[in-house]
């Protein structure tokens, strides 16, 4: 079977605080300028990054083997690979690379670079390695299972007949199949780190843009690659200003100093359509915002306590206020739009019920409640949601002490299991229930030394052998109807005892100037290069 579908602007004004930035009549005609909270960025190494914002930027600078079709996110289009063949038994995928793949420095890119890059992900062992190891590509097997028989071919052998679209989404369209410039990265290796430190603040890959500059806490600047052999970006530069405050983002947009604001509050999104020259755009994405609970510590080691938390979330009230326009209330871990997802009603069966929560707490041995710390990052809706939970919980005798921090600090604490409760976000790259089940339910090794930081289940210390077996059974069920039913039952059970109290499925919501055209996004990818002016 064959599948196929056919000079840097001065940084000064870009990085000055908003109050000091001179008013501009318009943004540069050849640049996309956005305001975005990018404080979660810590590295641009495709083997290491996990944050949504960094993934968005990297996947606009680095091509993977395939890409999501902008018009149909359930389909795939060529990227590094111009086509791919699947064996009749479903156990081998052969990717045929495009001709004339060239790195930004003019060096040709080959299958050897890509093979080395994929093996590097596994050998480094950061959280992203899970995207390969869960499909059998381990340190012990990857040399045999992924090969490059010539300069333009990658052969991927599977140990089991995984659904094709899962492999394409989880591996081939993922940052783990980005082609790095092997010679450049190896030349900058330090103490056996395979160039990890070198890639902290640069990209060495094949893609429409390359990272020209990153000033932490200030800005990211991308420039178009002159040697890129794919579709050329319509705008030659992308300038991302780090702006945390939603009010400041709105002001910059209204003044015309930016083309698009990415982190506006619901009230801004509601009011801005009345502003001259501004348009609000939205798309539902497969990302969940939730309260993670550390099951390795009291009181969240008790499933009745975890269930009580769900009755302290005012889903209906939040839908009309804080999350209006930025998400939809959802208590299930599987996002709407994914295969196997419960519908809207079944996926959010809870309502605020203080008495029910108190009864569950009493059954768990906490009739007088308890005191814990709730970590909150810099998401614009994080603090209001935390305050709603805090207020409701106080009526059940629970004291939630809210501790605010940057997203980078929040993710670091969460990945180190250094928390009691935390409000977090997680996005899957797979339009299938397994994308979330394989992370939020499945946990291959709960030991602290395993450091499986890419698994939210591990971060919360949640391990259940029966649940692990059910996730695996659903993955390989060949009957689609039965497979969907297995995921439905899994979602219903996890809502009763899982380690996360899900609040909402998020939307990408933004406001843009009407002078910016062809802003293109879907649930899995944002395509900077398609934007025009």
From TrEMBL:
Record keyword Transport present: yes
InterPro entries linked to this entry: Peptide/Ni-bd (IPR030678), SBP_5 (IPR039424), SBP_5_dom (IPR000914)
Q: Does the keyword Transport apply?
A: yes
Which key words tag this protein in UniProt?
Signal, Transport
- Predominant subcellular localization, coarse grouping: periplasm
Q: What is this protein called?
A: Peptide/nickel transport system substrate-binding protein
UniProt cross-references to CDD domains, sorted A to Z: PBP2_NikA_DppA_OppA_like_7 (cd08512)
Q: Which domain of life is it from?
A: Bacteria
Query: What stretch or stretches form a coiled coil here?
Result: none
Q: Where is this chain's protein located in or outside the cell?
A: Periplasm
The signal peptide annotation in the UniProt record is 1-25
- Domain (Solute-binding protein family): residue spans on this chain: 76-446
Family affiliation: Belongs to the bacterial solute-binding protein 5 family.
């Amino acid at each position: 079977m064959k599948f196929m579908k056919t000079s840097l602007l001065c940084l000064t004004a870009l990085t000055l605080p908003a109050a000091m930035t001179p008013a501009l009549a318009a943004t540069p005609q050849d640049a996309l300028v956005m305001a975005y909270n990018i404080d979660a960025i810590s590295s641009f190494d495709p083997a290491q990054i996990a944050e949504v914002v960094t993934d968005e930027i990297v996947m606009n600078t680095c091509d993977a083997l395939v890409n999501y079709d902008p018009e149909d996110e359930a389909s795939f289009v060529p990227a590094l690979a111009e086509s791919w063949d699947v064996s009749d038994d479903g156990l081998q995928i052969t990717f045929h690379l495009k001709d004339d793949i060239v790195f930004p420095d003019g060096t040709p890119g080959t299958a050897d670079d890509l093979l080395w890059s994929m093996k590097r992900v596994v050998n480094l062992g950061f959280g992203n390695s899970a995207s390969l190891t869960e499909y059998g590509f381990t340190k012990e097997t990857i040399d045999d299972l992924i090969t490059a028989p010539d300069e333009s071919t990658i052969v991927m052998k599977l140990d089991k007949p995984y659904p094709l679209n899962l492999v394409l989404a989880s591996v081939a369209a993922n940052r783990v199949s980005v082609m790095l410039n092997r010679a450049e990265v190896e030349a900058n290796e330090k103490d056996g780190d395979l160039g990890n430190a070198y890639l902290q603040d640069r990209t060495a890959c094949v893609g429409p843009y390359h990272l020209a500059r990153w000033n932490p806490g200030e800005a990211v600047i991308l420039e178009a690659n002159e040697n890129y052999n794919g579709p050329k970006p319509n705008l030659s530069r992308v300038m991302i200003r780090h702006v945390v405050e939603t009010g400041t983002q709105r002001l910059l947009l209204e003044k015309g100093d930016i083309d698009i604001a990415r982190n506006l509050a619901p009230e801004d999104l509601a009011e801005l359509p009345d502003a001259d020259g501004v348009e609000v755009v939205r798309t539902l994405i497969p990302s969940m915002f939730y309260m993670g609970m550390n099951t390795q510590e009291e009181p969240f080691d008790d499933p009745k306590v975890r269930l009580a938390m769900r009755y302290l979330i005012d889903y209906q009230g939040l839908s009309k206020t804080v999350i209006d326009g930025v998400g939809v209330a959802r208590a299930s871990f599987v996002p709407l739009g994914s295969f196997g997802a419960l519908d809207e009603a079944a996926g959010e069966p809870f309502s605020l019920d203080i008495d029910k929560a108190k009864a569950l707490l009493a059954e768990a041995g906490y009739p007088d409640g308890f005191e814990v710390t709730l970590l909150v990052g810099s998401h614009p809706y994080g603090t209001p949601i935390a305050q709603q939970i805090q207020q409701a919980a106080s009526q059940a005798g629970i004291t939630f002490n809210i501790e605010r921090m940057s997203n980078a600090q929040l993710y670091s604490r969460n990945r180190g299991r250094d928390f009691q409760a935390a409000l977090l976000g997680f996005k899957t790259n797979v339009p299938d229930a397994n994308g979330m089940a394989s992370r939020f339910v499945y946990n291959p090794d709960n030991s602290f030394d395993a450091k499986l930081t890419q698994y939210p289940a591990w971060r919360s210390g949640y391990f259940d052998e029966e649940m692990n077996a059910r996730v695996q059974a659903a993955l390989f069920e060949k009957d689609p109807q039965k497979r969907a039913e297995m995921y439905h039952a899994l979602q219903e059970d996890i809502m009763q005892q899982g380690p996360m109290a899900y609040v909402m499925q998020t939307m990408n919501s933004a406001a843009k100037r009407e002078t910016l055209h062809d802003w293109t996004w879907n649930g899995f990818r944002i395509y900077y290069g398609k934007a025009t002016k």
